[in-house]
Amino acid sequence: MALFSNIKVTLEMIKWEHSIFALPFALCGAMLAAGGWPAAAQLGWIVLCMVSARSAAMAFNRLADAQIDAANPRTATRAIPAGVLSQKFVGLFVLVSCGLFVVSAAQLNRLTLYLSPVALAVILLYSYTKRFTRWSHLVLGFALGIAPAAAWIAVRGSLDPRILILTAAVTCWVGGFDVLYACQDIDFDRANGLNSIPQSFGVKRSLMLARVLHFIMLGLLVALVVLFGLGKIALIGVAAVAILLLYEHSLVSADDLSKLNAAFFTMNGVIAVVFFVFVAADLLFKKFH
Questions:
Q1: Are 154 and 49 in contact, with CB atoms under 8 Å apart?
Q2: Which CATH superfamily is domain 2-288 in?
Q3: CB neighbourhood size of 6 (10 A)
Q4: Kind and range of the H or E run holding 2
Q5: Angle at the Cα of 265 (from 38 to 55), degrees rounded to 5?
Q6: pLDDT tens digits for 160-218?
Q7: Are 257 and 183 in contact (CB under 8 A)?
Q8: In the chain, how long is the greatest CA-to-CA distance?
């Protein structure tokens, strides 16, 4: 019973349901590679790769930041600093998740297996970047941004440079909303020698930079539509994403960050799903008409 209880607490700690942030973009990569729905087996292993990789990354992040979280009033109640979970158990969870990721990647093709350690290195080592660079937000973005390229490789067994446009778009998207989220910890980061864009430039300039990153993301999504010959349905999806981003940014200001959690958790999940739905609809419409 203790094992199941610890697993439940761990899943709550890593907010595994927020895999929805990157999963829709991975599915976009898979569908673009397949020109429609990939094979059911491929789809299943891709989803398992995504969930296991994110679980490993989030649990490792909590492990790496345990002392930092304990010192930060906003995060002191997380499971490890609160003593609800042991570092040993979380470390074992990370190892099992990494193993599941590699095994899942091996079921797809040889290239995904060979690249699985590289993917793990990117998503795990992100956790240390705030210790030496203010640009850790973009490293996090890249860690999620490799998902659509990885999904393309999973379907095709090779890489098409065009899919890197979606990698760049996701990097800017995640980097932008992580800058927003980091505004909550600006005072703590400054007091403890941690690096972030808000710590370096202040909240007002950071909000502006987040807007710039999201504007670049929209431009990259338009480029993706053009390069893959998608149509009006996909463009409507880009327009929908633009409207949702405008709403997200309207929730926060330099003087009021009280709605940041709503902007971060709710709207970004909606943005990812909306874009996937429109791209999938565009691809399926072209395939059957």
A1: yes
A2: UbiA prenyltransferase (1.10.357.140)
A3: 18
A4: helix 2-13
A5: 55
A6: 999 999 999 999 999 999 999 899 899 999 999 999 999 999 999 999 999 999 999 99
A7: yes
A8: 60
First to last CA, the chain: 53
Rounded Cα distance, 84 and 151, in Å: 35
Q: Are 263 and 248 in contact (CB under 8 A)?
A: yes
Q: What is the pLDDT of residues 3-52, one digit of tens each?
A: 777 677 766 766 665 566 678 999 999 999 999 999 999 999 999 999 99
The amino acid at 81: P
- Residue 18 makes CB contacts below 8 A (sequence gap 6+) with 54, 265, 269
Q: Are 175 and 212 in contact (CB under 8 A)?
A: no
Q: What is the model's pTM?
A: 0.93
d(C-alpha 94, C-alpha 54), whole Å: 10
Distances (CA, A) of 128 to 121, 141, 273: 12, 14, 29
**151, 27 contact by CB (below 8 A):** yes
User: Residue 124 is encoded by which pair of tokens?
Assistant: 């795990």
Q: Phi/psi at 170 (nearest 5 deg)?
A: -65, -35
How many angstroms separate the CA atoms of 189 and 191, rounded? 5
As a whole number of angstroms, the distance between CA 171 and CA 183 comes to 18
Asked if 201 contacts 139 with a C-beta cutoff of 8 angstroms, the reply is no
What whole-number distance in Å separates Cα of residue 126 and Cα of residue 103?
Answer: 22
Closest CA to 66 of 78, 54, 84: 78
Tokens representing residue 206 in the block: 């950071």
Phi-psi sector, 122: left (phi>0), alpha (psi -120 to 50), beta: alpha
